[in-house]
Amino acid sequence: METNNKAEAIKAWLANNRDLENQESLAKKFGKSRTFVSLSLNKKSVTKASEKLINEIFEYLHEKYRI
């Protein structure tokens, strides 16, 4: 799945499941700042690190919550 589509899927899932995960909990889980998570999900940061983070978050949410 393309990274932009993954970011959109993550944002949509987070909007509907705030009680399970949020940007801050994901930032803590992956050792990043909440700002970096937000910038990555909103495609304001388009670095390799952002792409890697989005792929890792998507994989985590897919394995744990079956998104």
Quick tags:
mainly alpha; 67 residues
Characterise the protein shown here.
This protein has 67 residues and is mostly helical. The chain is built from four helices and no strands. The longest helix has 18 residues, at 48-65. The protein is globular. The relative contact order is 0.20.
Roughly what is the average pLDDT, rounded to an integer? 96
Main beta sheet: none
How would you classify the helix and strand content by structural class? mainly alpha
Distance between the termini: 13 Å
Oligomer designation: single chain
What is the element layout, followed by pairings?
Blueprint: H1 3-16, H2 23-30, H3 34-41, H4 48-65
Short summary:
72% of the residues lie in helices and 0% in strands.
